[in-house]
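Thread amino acids onto this structure.
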């Protein structure tokens, strides 16, 4: 450890990067640094002539000098100081040449961090110091040997002094070797050194751990035997970096997908730099390879790429949901209005009801994609699980060779769930069951009420649950794959995306439920879904349940950026006796609300779209309305059904919520509930 502060001189014209260097050095835990700086080469060289420093950080491209000439002038001025080149990605080749010409190291600005910078400074100083000590020791030894030979015949006492001096030098060399050993043992990178024949002459502890070879076993063996490299893309043998370094007499880097095959056969992604070792006459006397295990980093980068893909899906799904659900809202509104004027026994009424169901299934497609890509919270309501199971089976494409058998306990409890999300869960499990039976078979679906009371069996899920079981007669799941089936992108099916069961797990978890799996390889699989039973009773909805407003005229303001959505919703409320006005965005809604209140004819309710592209949405508009009327009553409506505002609307100041697309019955019930509250 260096006790005195290390004096670092930085020649860099980029003030922000210079400040970053200063911040990195200030955070050094074990070493203190003193940083001085110049933004021009000439003024920097003047400072180097006048003051003493331990190391130079040098940017090659300065206002008054550029390229290798910058390094050569600096090196000529202070050959005794270690120099570290600061370079960008576009001039990394120049930095490598500078290292060949005497620089100790180089750092790519975009990749540098505090730990990397401080480690590079320490190593550069130690290397420079070691080189100087070794060179001085070597020169001194030669001089002493020559002197001893010359005076050997003259005086025996001279021989004694020479022997003593040689012993002292050997001790210094031994001490320096020990310092080198300690340094190699302390660094976090693996280090292997070879002679010019590619035989290993040095290996540190980290290299032992990564390769699986003990130093004693590796010494004298060929580098290729101990450090076997293959290409990550195809598994083909990669070029030996040590041989290439010896042939080309330059630094060699391993390709990004280089994989080290360890002694036990295990494979690890590695990054490595192979550098030539020169003697005083610039002849190659060996090669040093510095490398590290980057397997975990590669995994993190892969997971990041997956996350970016999911984010892209989420953005696409969000846009589709908003536009698609607006269209569905208009379709459903007109279907509902048409049904009002028909008898329930009319064939057209039945067809409109089927079209209405199909609209909701279309909405659920975008909801399912949003749920997994953004982890959206479910928009829950009390639902009949029996009807939901039947509907799921009806809307699941099936193989004619597959039969379904539905068994449901009488008086099955209702559940407070997001219908679309749970239907997606059932559909995914049914499709998974079908795919496991390529020759067809029977799929059993059952549902029953259960009460978990035994804390020793399931302490995290106590209380009343509805247990849904889907059992197939397929090939089963191997023990090897069982622990991975709910992982995103894991699949054993060719061409599959690997999201089906991951979506199941995500949705059930967001409903505070849980999933269990039973399987026997070759005989089939059972998936058990546990949904919390509702403490409230199921309210029966009638198709033509319209909630008429009181005799007193009630005014409603509808804010939506889509004119067809505004008009469809307004026609429904107008037919029920409400007086309706419209606004295209939040600003217009605030203006109309203020004008009505000042005129003594205030609105009794505002229904606002959550998101208005390019304008003020419902969340922001509500803040403006509350400044006018703290008691304003507002309902939020959106096609982004997974938005946090929709799932927890009271937290954001709304009195009610209705997700697009919606039935007339849903809209009028929410309007009545908010009006009467």
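Threaded sequence (677 positions):
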């Amino acid at each position: 450890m260096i006790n005195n502060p290390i004096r670092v001189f930085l020649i860099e014209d980029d003030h922000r990067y210079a400040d970053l260097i200063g911040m990195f050095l200030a955070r050094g835990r074990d070493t203190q640094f003193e940083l001085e700086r110049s933004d021009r080469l000439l003024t920097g060289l003047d400072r180097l002539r006048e003051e003493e420093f331990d190391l130079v950080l040098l940017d090659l491209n300065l206002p008054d000098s550029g390229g290798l000439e910058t390094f050569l002038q600096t090196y000529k001025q202070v050959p005794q100081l270690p120099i570290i080149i600061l370079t960008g990605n576009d001039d990394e080749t120049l930095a490598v040449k500078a290292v060949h010409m005497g620089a100790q190291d180089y750092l790519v600005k975009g990749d540098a961090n505090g730990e990397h910078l401080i480690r590079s400074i320490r190593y550069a100083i130690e290397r420079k110091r070691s080189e100087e000590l070794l060179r001085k020791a070597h020169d001194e030894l030669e001089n002493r040997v020559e002197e001893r030979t010359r005076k050997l015949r003259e005086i025996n006492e001279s021989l004694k002094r020479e022997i003593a001096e040689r012993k002292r030098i050997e001790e210094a060399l031994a001490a320096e070797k020990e310092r080198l050993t300690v340094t190699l043992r302390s660094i976090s990178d693996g280090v292997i050194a070879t002679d010019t024949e590619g035989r290993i002459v040095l290996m540190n502890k980290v290299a032992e751990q990564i390769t699986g070879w003990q130093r004693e076993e590796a010494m004298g063996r060929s580098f290729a035997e101990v450090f076997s490299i293959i290409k990550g893309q195809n598994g083909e043998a990669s070029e030996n970096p040590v041989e290439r370094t010896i042939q080309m007499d330059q630094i060699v880097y391993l390709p990004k997908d280089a994989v080290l095959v360890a002694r036990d056969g295990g494979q690890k992604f590695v990054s490595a730099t192979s550098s030539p070792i020169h003697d005083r006459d610039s002849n190659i006397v060996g090669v040093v390879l510095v490398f590290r295990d980057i397997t975990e980093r590669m995994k993190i980068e892969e997971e990041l790429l997956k996350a970016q893909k999911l984010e892209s899906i989420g953005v696409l799904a969000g846009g589709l949901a908003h536009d698609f659900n607006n269209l569905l809202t208009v379709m459903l509104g007109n279907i509902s209005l048409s049904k009002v004027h028909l008898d329930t026994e009319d064939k057209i009424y039945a067809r409109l009801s089927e079209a209405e169901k199909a609209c909701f299934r279309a909405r659920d497609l975008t909801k399912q994609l949003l749920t997994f890509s953004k982890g959206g919270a479910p928009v829950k309501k009390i639902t009949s699980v029996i009807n939901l199971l039947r509907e799921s089976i009806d809307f699941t494409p099936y193989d004619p060779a597959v039969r379904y058998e539905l068994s449901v306990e009488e008086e099955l409890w209702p559940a407070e769930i997001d219908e679309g999300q749970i239907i997606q869960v059932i559909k995914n499990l049914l499709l998974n069951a079908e795919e496991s039976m390529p020759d067809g078979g029977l799929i059993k679906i059952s549902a029953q009420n259960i009460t978990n009371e035994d804390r020793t069996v399931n302490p995290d899920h106590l209380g009343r649950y509805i247990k849904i079981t889907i059992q197939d007669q397929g090939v089963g799941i191997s023990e090897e794959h069982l622990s991975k089936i709910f992982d995103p992108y894991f699949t054993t099916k060719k061409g599959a995306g690997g999201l089906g069961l991951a979506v199941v797990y995500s949705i059930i978890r967001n409903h505070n439920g849980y999933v269990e799996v039973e399987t026997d390889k070759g005989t089939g699989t059972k998936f058990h879904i546990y949904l919390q039973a509702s403490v409230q009773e199921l309210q029966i909805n009638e198709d033509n349940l319209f909630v008429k407003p009181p005799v007193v005229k009630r005014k409603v303001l509808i804010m939506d950026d889509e004119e067809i959505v505004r008009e469809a919703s307004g026609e429904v409320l107008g037919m029920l006796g409400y007086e309706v006005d419209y606004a295209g965005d939040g600003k217009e809604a605030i203006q109309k609300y203020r004008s009505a209140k000042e005129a003594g004819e205030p609105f009794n309710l505002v229904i606002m779209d959550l998101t208005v592209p390019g304008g003020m949405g419902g969340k922001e508009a509500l803040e403006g309305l509350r400044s006018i009327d703290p008691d304003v009553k507002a309902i939020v409506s959106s096609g982004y059904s997974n938005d946090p505002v929709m799932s927890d609307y009271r937290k954001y100041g709304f009195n009610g919520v209705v997700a697009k697309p919606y039935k007339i019955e849903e809209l009028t019930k929410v309007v009545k509930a908010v009006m009467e509250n």
